[in-house]
Design brief:
Elements lengths: L22 H7 L5 E5 L5 E5 L2 H9 L16
Antiparallel strand pairs: 1-2
Amino acid sequence: MTTNATELPVFPWHRGCPMAPPDQYAEVRESDAPVRKVPLATGRTAWVVTRYDLIKQVLADPRSSSARATRDSRTT
């Protein structure tokens, strides 16, 4: 599999082993773009953040939220 964002499979990714994360996480984390947009089964998109230091930044940033009331209606 390549690390091109347009070639990532629909998220969530399949786990080969229930005790291990999907292989795509490592591929994205080790690529030049450890933060990537991924397609969802609903047709929308989401962001996958794969490195601990970047995850900490996202969680500490007041602009990021999973609450529907704070989502920007212009994004997909």
